[in-house]
Structures are given as C-alpha cells and as structure tokens.
Write a structure and sequence with these properties.
Layout lengths: L1 H5 L6 H14 L5 H17 L3 H17 L3
Length: about 70
Amino acid sequence: MLMSQLGENVEYPLVVNNIVDYGVQSASHPNPKVRYGALQMLGQLADDMKPDFQTHYGEKILQVIIGCAKD
C-alpha cells in the first residue's frame, strides 16, 4: 500500500525516475507481497501519467512484468 501511495500524484520527472527505479528493484524482492506492491505502484504510475509514462518507461517496465509473470 505504501508503494502505491508513493506513485500517487507525482509530478516531477526526477522523483518519477527514482520511484520507477525503486519499483523495478522491489519487483525482484523475495517476498511476494513486496513484489505485488511494486507492480501495483508501477501500474498506478502508468495509469496516472499516461501516455508519457509508457513512452519513457514502457520498455523497462515491460521487462519487469515479464519477469514477474513466472509468479
């Protein structure tokens, strides 16, 4: 829940970069709840900041989603 709230109402590009990097790192965490939170946060960012988010981070995030699909 905390990760999802981090992605809520973020407007500054530098902050978005840091949050996306944190989400990408957390998506490989051993705890499934942390992985879920990371994916939830990235999804929230993608929904709130479309289409710019997909343009800038789409390729990076797609790799994370594919990697998590094994779960």
